[in-house]
Amino acid sequence: MSCSSRKLQGQNGKFGYTANAQGGSISGFAIANDGSISLIDADGRTAVVGGGNIDLALSGNSRYLYQLDGDRSISGFRIEADGHLTAVGNVAGLPASTVGLVAR
Questions:
Q1: What one-character DSSP code corresponds to residue 63?
Q2: Residue 103 domain-assigned (yes or no)
Q3: For all residues of the chain together, what is the average pLDDT?
C-alpha cells in the first residue's frame, strides 16, 4: 500500500489515520495505552475514497475527518466510537489551485 506523508492522530489519542494516495483509501489505526498500534480493518482500508488522496484534516473535536482528493473535492467522515469512518458529505468544484486542507 502506497502512503502519502500525511498522517493524523485525534485529540483523544485512540485513533490515527493515513491517506494512501495511490491506493485510494484511508487507513485507520487503533492506538493502545502503551502506544502500540493495530489496523482498524485487516485489509488496511478503513475508507475507500478513490485515487489521488492529497490531504487529511481532523475537526477540532476529533469527531470528523476530512479528505482532499485529486479531483479537487473534499469528503467528510464521522469518526465512530470504534474508529470506523462513516461518510457524511462531499463538496466538489474547488479551484484548481487547491493543494491543502485545514479543519477547525
A1: S
A2: no
A3: 84
Residue 98 within any structural domain of the chain? no
Domain total in the chain: 1
- pLDDT tens for each residue of 70-96: 888 999 999 999 999 999 999 999 888
Give the burial string for 18-57 (b: 16+ CB within 10 Å, else e).
Answer: bbbbebbbbbbbebeeeeeeeebeeebbbbebeeebbbbb
Say if residue 28's pLDDT is above 70.
Answer: yes
pTM of structure = 0.83
> What type of residue sits at position 104?
R
Q: Where are the alpha helices (DSSP H) in 5-57?
A: none
Q: Let me know: does 15 contact 81? Beta carbons within 8 Å.
A: no
DSSP state of 40: S
Check pLDDT > 50 for residue 45.
Answer: yes
